[in-house]
């Protein structure tokens, strides 16, 4: 698992048992959860459209949509890592809660046994044949299984981000749980790694997938395909066949407008505050040469991104450029209004300055780089609840939705107080 010449520092020696212990615990938990359902003699059934909830009840059509349509409620959001997907998750949670939709939620932790491929048995209270409206937590995508949970008219959506920035972000966020990076010396580990990735990387090592084509991995594909491997294009075609809309994090507002259009939702439904954002001082700016190396290293992800960036702009074109500009402007205006209403000081603050633990975001090991918000004290009561929901980080929201997160909390406790 380690490279030759790897030197165990005191810190690393202290980390290993905890990481191994936690991993073993998570794997054991996933195995027991899976076995329970496998024993059941009922054969796996798919959710039929006839019993699925397909309309949110009272609301009819989105008021600012031209065509007559009714809001869509059956949604698969494939939550990719480090792509602003937490912000989308918050939007989905609020919509689902407001319209009393049924979420397929993970059990005891905040993901579906990631990085293992998704199985229905990982869903909280799952019974074969049951129907859900929304699936949106972290998973390693597995269409065969996901499709059993949702009615056949469900819409599949995901989000991609420039693979270079994603790589930088994942490297920063996960390096403490990727043993491969521990042996890299120097104070710029990322550049060091990219100068000679093969010297450090091994596909079999624990958590190595965070370091190479993480998007490809999240979609359930082989993340170690070589440059120019024809299977890369085949997998990209697969994504375009399965997903009705692929959002692009760099064009976040435009993405939300396309999402709203696809789902026939209202502008109010897609208002947001950026969640899980890293303070800029912790983001490494990469020079062009390093960027080129990162691209080459994440070639499959790069091809994926390039393809869907192109189709994204075709869709913007089809939507109408001017119409898009107008809608983005309106979205920004209403978001600014919400920020002024809800957020103390109108902007994100460093983790140490967040007063209420309910609004403190999850942090990577040994860091406090993820920013958060304080709720204003003087909000009128009707606005208070929506403001609070918009500011609630992913883990706390999941807990509010009824998931008992003991595995995640235990890991959080080890991470914050022991490591
Ligand atoms: C639908 O309308 C009824 C009566 O107006 C109300 O009690 C109920 O909460 C509404 N349901 C939703 C989902 O908004
Ligand atoms: C994405 O598409 C836009 C519009 O065509 C283009 O300006 C931009 O350079 C593209 N980005 C990448 C990384 O291909």
TrEMBL record:
Q: Name the domain of life.
A: Eukaryota
**Does the record's keyword annotation contain Transferase?**
yes
Q: Where can this protein be found? A: Golgi apparatus membrane
Protein biosynthesis as a keyword of this entry, yes or no, is no
Q: Name one Pfam family in it.
A: Gal-3-0_sulfotr
**Coiled coil regions in record:** none
Q: Name one GO biological process term.
A: galactosylceramide biosynthetic process
Q: Which UniProt keywords apply?
A: Glycoprotein, Golgi apparatus, Membrane, Signal-anchor, Transferase, Transmembrane, Transmembrane helix
Named from the GO MF annotations, one term is:
galactosylceramide sulfotransferase activity
- A single GO cellular-component term on record: Golgi membrane
Q: How does it sit in the membrane?
A: Single-pass type II membrane protein
Q: Which family does it belong to?
A: Belongs to the galactose-3-O-sulfotransferase family.
This one is known as: Galactose-3-O-sulfotransferase 1a
Source organism of the structure: Poecilia mexicana
């Amino acid at each position: 698992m380690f490279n030759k010449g790897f030197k165990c520092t005191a810190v690393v020696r202290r980390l290993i048992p905890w990481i191994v212990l936690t991993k073993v615990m998570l794997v054991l938990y996933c195995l027991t959860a899976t076995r329970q359902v496998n024993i059941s003699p009922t054969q796996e059934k798919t959710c039929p459209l006839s019993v699925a909830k397909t309309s949110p009840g009272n609301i009819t059509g989105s008021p600012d949509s031209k065509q007559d349509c009714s809001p869509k409620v059956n949604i698969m959001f494939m939550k990719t890592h480090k792509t602003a997907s937490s912000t989308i998750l918050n939007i989905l949670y609020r919509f689902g809660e407001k319209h009393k939709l049924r979420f397929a939620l993970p059990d005891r932790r905040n993901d579906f046994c990631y990085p293992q491929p998704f199985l229905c048995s990982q869903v909280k209270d799952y019974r074969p044949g049951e129907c859900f409206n929304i699936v949106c937590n972290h998973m390693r995508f597995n269409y065969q299984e996901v499709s059993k949970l949702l009615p056949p008219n469900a819409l599949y959506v995901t989000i991609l981000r420039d693979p270079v920035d994603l790589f930088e972000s994942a490297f920063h966020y996960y390096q403490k749980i990727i043993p491969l990076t521990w042996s890299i010396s120097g104070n710029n580990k990322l550049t060091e790694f990219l100068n000679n990735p093969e010297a450090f990387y091994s596909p079999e090592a624990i958590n190595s997938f965070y370091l190479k084509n993480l998007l490809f991995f999240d979609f359930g594909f082989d993340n170690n395909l070589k440059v120019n491997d024809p299977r890369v294009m085949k997998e990209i075609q697969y994504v375009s066949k399965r997903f009705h809309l692929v959002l692009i994090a760099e064009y976040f507002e435009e993405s939300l407008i396309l999402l709203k259009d696809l789902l026939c939702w209202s502008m109010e439904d897609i208002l947001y505050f950026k969640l899980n954002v890293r303070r800029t001082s912790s983001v490494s700016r990469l020079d062009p040469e390093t960027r080129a190396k990162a691209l080459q290293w994440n070639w499959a992800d790069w091809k994926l991104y390039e393809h869907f960036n192109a189709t994204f702009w075709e869709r913007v074109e089809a939507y109408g450029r001017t119409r898009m500009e107008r809608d983005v402007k309106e979205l920004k205006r209403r978001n600014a209004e919400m920020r002024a209403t809800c957020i103390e000081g109108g902007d994100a603050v460093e983790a140490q300055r967040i007063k209420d633990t309910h609004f403190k975001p999850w942090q990577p090991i040994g860091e406090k780089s993820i920013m958060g918000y304080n709720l204003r004290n003087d909000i009128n009561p009707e606005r208070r609840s929506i403001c609070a929901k918009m500011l609630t980080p992913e883990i706390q929201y999941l807990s509010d939705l009824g998931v008992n997160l003991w595995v995640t909390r235990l890991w959080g406790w080890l991470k914050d107080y022991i490591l």
